[in-house]
Specification:
Blueprint (H helix, E strand, L loop, with lengths): L1 E5 L4 H5 L2 H10 L4 E7 L3 H5 L6 E5 L1 H6 L5 H11 L3 E2 L1 E4 L4 H9 L1 E2 L2 E4 L15 E3 L7 H13 L16 H11 L7 E5 L11 H15 L2 E5 L3 H13 L4 E4 L4 H8 L4 E5 L2 H6 L6 E5 L4 H4 L6 E5 L22 H4 L3 H21 L3
Parallel strand pairs: 1-2, 1-5, 2-3, 4-6, 5-7, 7-8, 9-10, 9-12, 10-11, 12-13, 13-14
């Protein structure tokens, strides 16, 4: 059996689609699974042990300069049409993925029905349609489409995902593993593409001071750009003798690094969803997005949900996520409130996480 998954972006959404690979492999252990994704995310998928081939697209560049991109688009079309798939699963549901559906060859092109599809033109590019549940975890939405196609609930392999590393990355991971082996190591992923998804620096520092007082941990501050580096440097100066900062690394290396620490504290971001592919516990902070929709599943993952002071309600993301000038649902959270929930969570998971350090 040959399957094609069309889920081009974003990083977090792509990661949350990984359970689909798991259930396809559980039903068809020898199947071939290919994937279409944006160029910048392709290295993550190439590190996935159960994905056979990755087709890259660069839709932002294609839209920006269509005429200059005709050669690249034609090359992509010829490449993807070399294979005829038993089923193509469009988990994106927009016009961009619709174009990919038209290019690809497949007996069945499976997508969302008219009421569920994200952008209506996409409906015309698939020939098998199913409704989807918009409430609850987004991972269920992806699984629901695939399971609806097969007419049954598919079992999962429930194996921990181990992304493949280069030799150089494996050496770096070994160095990371040696840091702070005599106390809990907590990776702090404080960044996000959206400022309103982040705590204020003051709130985060005061929260971590309470965590430090209780656990005496080693903090590992991870940054991905220059602004975050400057923040990480400030955090390291506060926690001088009990922290390190780690700069930009590949997504596979980041995921494997997470697998060797005792806990991750993260915003609603790609970092959190990476942690969800490991057995490492996470404590996440949600404000203008719903923990019910985006938190990793399982008892090892706990989320704090900030409340909107303006009474705005939403199912997945706040409609004012990009425009709210205060971000008060997270910025005004009490450090003590965060710590109280974290403390209960850590007491529950600490036995299993610390056992691995002995």
């Amino acid at each position: 059996m040959k399957f094609l998954i069309v889920k081009t972006s974003s990083i977090g959404d792509v990661i949350q689609t990984f359970p689909v690979v798991d259930v396809l492999k559980s039903k068809f252990p020898t199947c071939r699974i290919d994937w279409v994704v944006e160029k910048g995310i392709a290295p993550l998928l190439r590190a996935h042990p159960d994905i056979h081939n990755v087709f890259e697209v660069d839709t932002k560049r294609w839209r920006k300069s269509l005429f200059k991109s005709l050669g690249a688009i034609g090359s992509f079309k010829r490449e993807i049409r070399r294979i005829r798939y038993d089923a193509i699963f469009d988990l994106q549901g927009n016009s961009k993925s619709g174009m990919i559906n038209l290019f690809a060859r497949g007996k069945k092109k499976v997508g969302y029905d008219w009421d569920s599809v994200a952008e209506k033109p996409n409906y015309l590019t698939t020939n098998v349609h199913f409704p989807c549940q918009n409430e609850g975890s987004v991972r269920f939405r992806y699984l629901q489409l695939v399971e609806s196609h097969f007419g049954e609930k598919l079992p999962r392999l429930n194996k921990e995902l181990v992304l493949q590393l280069s030799e150089q990355e494996s050496a770096l991971l070994e160095r990371f593993s040696l840091f702070g082996v005599y106390r809990p190591r907590l990776m702090i992923c404080f960044g996000s593409n959206w400022p309103n998804k982040q705590l204020s620096e003051h709130t985060l520092v005061e929260f971590l001071k309470l965590v430090q007082e209780k656990l005496s941990p080693e903090f590992i501050f991870v940054y991905g750009n220059q602004i975050e580096k400057e923040q990480a440097d400030r955090f390291e100066r506060v926690f001088t003798k009990t922290s390190i900062t780690v700069g930009r690394m590949s997504l596979p290396l980041w995921q494997r690094f997470m697998s060797v620490v005792e806990g991750v504290i993260a915003m609603d971001s790609a970092a959190l969803h990476l942690c969800g592919t490991t057995s490492t516990p996470s404590f996440s902070l949600f404000g203008p997005s719903s923990a019910l929709a985006y938190k990793p599943s399982g008892d090892n993952h706990e989320a704090f949900q900030g409340k909107c002071p303006y009474g705005i309600e939403f199912t997945k993301r706040c409609p004012s996520l990009r425009t709210c000038k205060t971000g008060a649902c997270l910025k005004d959270v009490s450090p003590q409130a965060l710590f109280d929930q974290f403390s209960i969570f850590w007491s529950r998971v600490s036995k299993s996480t610390l056992a691995s350090t002995k």
